From TrEMBL, chain A:
Classification via CDD domains: Sigma70_r4
Species name: Azospirillum brasilense
Taxonomy, superkingdom: Bacteria
Pfam family, one: Sigma70_r2
Residues annotated as domain RNA polymerase sigma-70 region: 34-102
Protein name: RNA polymerase sigma-70 factor (ECF subfamily)
From TrEMBL, chain B:
Protein's recorded name: ChrR-like anti-ECFsigma factor
Species of origin: Azospirillum brasilense
Ranges for domain ChrR-like cupin: 135-207
Alphabetical list of InterPro entries matching this protein: Anti-sigma_ChrR, Anti_sigma_zinc_sf, ChrR-like_cupin_dom, RmlC-like_jellyroll, RmlC_Cupin_sf
Residues in coiled coil: none
Domain of life: Bacteria
Alphabetized Pfam families for the sequence: Cupin_7
Length: 191, 228
């Protein structure tokens, strides 16, 4: 795994470029390359959410079909390809495994209080941020990284993690906060 | 336009970004996000953490037939219709009071809701959640719209589980300070709070989420503010 630009294995295009090509050109080669990289990771993610192997592969197919259909809306200045795939997989598994809706903001809603400044990020900046973030993730103290994985991968709010792991709620909260502070610093330190 | 001063905090936002919150709590957090650009940025960064974690997960081999199956199905699928997302050039004269995603749950017209009187000066409307039946409704949580007249406060109560309150109009004051539109109050069983609606009254969204779902805690909540 490389840190800058998330280059796809065996190709000279980044995942962000592959995803953009799927959205713009319905590029099947690009789609297959994305599948090759992300499907095994999505499967591992869904397995940790409690799917059996067969169920996880079915959901991986659902997620990848959604990726094909929604790729047009992908904006590389907003998110890395991995982040965008993560949100699609997260919402799909909430729908499939919990049979719940995922309430989200509507960016076009007139009641939305707008951002104070337009983000000046371009696609390159978003990818570099993702690279710094992955590097920072590897340097987190294990007790913080473990909790973060539980929070993101096991469909458990921090209060439940505290009860199940026998870690006091205050400790869970402070570890998650410390982890987030370090990761946020890595993401915001662009220069 | 003012921005909120009371926020959900990192841990609740991580729960939302990771997708671990039930529908009711997700609804109140997302409605806060519509009113709070700073928490929106935080959630975007937390989703980036989700992306980085997905990259770093130990991959599991996928049956090669999977890709064939998916490729064969691509032609049957038209791209999803593009939802027009026009940039807002200026604020419309009358901004609807209820932001999305709350509006799609209850509509835009408060006067049409079947309000239920809880006590003098305090009405509520229980928001229907989810379409699935038979699913763990404790996990989903409960969401209730509350309308309090000036100076009204619910009887003293403590919490089992977590209670979130988001001010939509007017405001209230409790031990933790003054809460106005967009402010989110987070109370758990360690908090004894006595909210009282401000002079102009208070419209708020209140949500209970039972974090200890395996104990069936939600069914035992005896909470006059949000007893469902």
């Amino acid at each position: 795994m490389q840190d800058l630009g998330s280059p796809a294995a065996g190709a000279d295009r980044t995942f962000e470029e592959l995803l953009t090509a799927v959205g713009r050109d319905r590029d099947r080669t690009a789609f297959a390359a994305l599948f090759g990289h992300f499907a095994p990771r999505l499967k591992a993610y869904l397995r940790r959410q409690g799917c059996d192997a067969g169920g996880a592969e079915e959901l991986v197919q659902d997620v990848m079909l959604l990726v094909w259909r929604r790729a047009e809306t992908y904006d590389p200045s907003q998110a890395s390809a991995a982040t965008w795939m993560f949100t699609i997989a997260r919402n799909r598994r909430i729908d499939a495994l919990r049979r719940e809706q995922r309430p989200e903001i509507d960016p076009a809603d007139p009641t939305l209080v707008p951002d104070p400044v337009e983000s000046a990020d371009d696609g390159v900046a978003a990818r570099e941020t993702a690279g710094r973030l992955r590097a920072a993730l590897r340097t987190l103290p294990p007790e913080q990284a473990d909790l973060l994985r539980l929070a993101y991968f096991e469909d458990k709010p921090h209060s439940l993690i505290s009860a199940e792991q026998g870690i006091p709620l205050g400790t869970v909260k402070s570890r998650l906060r410390l982890a987030m502070e370090r990761l946020r610093k890595a993401m915001r330190d662009s220069q | 336009m003012t921005v909120p001063t009371h926020h959900p905090g990192d841990t609740l936002l991580i729960d939302y970004a990771g997708g671990a919150l039930g529908e009711a709590a997700s609804l109140i957090v997302a409605t806060h996000l519509a009113l709070c650009p700073c928490c929106r940025l935080n959630v975007a960064e937390m989703e980036a953490v989700g992306g980085a974690l997905l990259e770093s997960i130990e991959p599991e081999e996928v049956d090669p037939a999977c890709l064939e199956t998916v490729l064969a199905r691509l032609d049957d699928l038209p791209p999803l219709p593009r939802v027009p997302r026009p940039k807002l050039v200026c604020q419309p004269a009358e901004v609807p009071l209820l932001p999305e995603p709350l509006r799609r749950y209850i509509g835009g017209d408060l006067s049409r809701l079947p309000w239920k009187r809880l006590m003098r000066g305090m009405d509520c409307y229980d928001i229907p959640l989810g379409s699935g039946s038979g699913y763990d409704s404790e996990r989903r949580g409960k969401a209730r719209l509350m309308r309090l007249a000036s100076g009204v406060g619910p009887p003293h109560h403590t919490h089992r589980g977590i209670e979130l309150t988001l001010v939509l109009d007017g405001g209230f004051t409790d031990d933790l300070g003054q809460f106005a539109r967009g402010d989110l109050s987070v109370a758990d069983d360690s908090v004894r709070h006595r909210p009282v609606a401000d002079e102009e009254g208070c419209l708020c969204l209140a949500v209970t989420d039972a974090p200890l779902r395996f104990t069936g805690a939600l069914g035992l909540i005896l909470n006059p503010f949000v007893t469902f």
